[in-house]
Amino acid sequence: MLRFSSVFYRHWAVLLRNKQQYPRARETVENSIATARQSKQRNIMNNALLARIQIDLADQSIEPKGYKKQIEKIIADTRRLGMPRIETEALRIYAQMILAENDRVLAEKYAAEAAAVTNRSGLRLHKLSALYVYGDALIKREQFDFARDLLGQTSRESERRSYHSLMSRISEISRFIPA
């Protein structure tokens, strides 16, 4: 029952984040973390912690360095326990945080690593999200030709899989690629 409660609170927090109701999202994700802690299931706890980090990043209320060690721990934990979906999510979030700090090369490395994990694991939708971050890093490194090709392929695959929210985000960042 605790596992179910934690997952429910986490999904609810994500919905609140998407509606930009950050204080309520934080409160809800803290409930998710508390019930995950009681359940003593690391995958549930890691998911809840990543949700909290994503809420804070969306609100832009934290300095990205504040969660680096926590994400590094989650990446190591998920690798050790063989949880590629959570590992991919952590790598992608880590890449986004590093990109926000303007370390484009390192962000590109972690985004590419997330995409590689998804390839090995068959996590297609997560691969598309990782490739989006990779493309964003390429744009910021001014590798426009590669970014255009990568994001074009990612957009087409997203359309094929009806991943409309990603298509919209790709469209937003693609405007930074010169014609």
Describe the structure.
The chain is mainly alpha-helical and 179 residues long. Helices cover 82% and strands 0% of the residues. Helix 3 runs parallel beside helix 5. The longest helix has 18 residues. The model has no long low-confidence stretch (mean pLDDT 93).
Helices and strands, with pairings:
Layout: H1 2-18, H2 22-39, H3 42-59, H4 68-81, H5 84-100, H6 104-121, H7 124-140, H8 144-160, H9 164-174
Q: Which key terms come to mind for this protein?
A:
0% strand; mainly alpha; 179 residues
Helical segment count: 9
Please give the radius of gyration in angstroms: 16 Å
Helix and strand composition category: mainly alpha
Beta-strand portion reads under 5%
Oligomeric form = single chain
Q: Give a count of the beta strands, DSSP E runs of length 2 or more.
A: 0
The main sheet comes to: none
Low-confidence stretches: none
Estimate percent helicity. Answer: over 70%
Shape assignment: globular
**How widely separated are the two ends?**
54 Å
Mean pLDDT, to the nearest integer, reads 93
Q: How do the SSEs run, as a string of H and E?
A: HHHHHHHHH
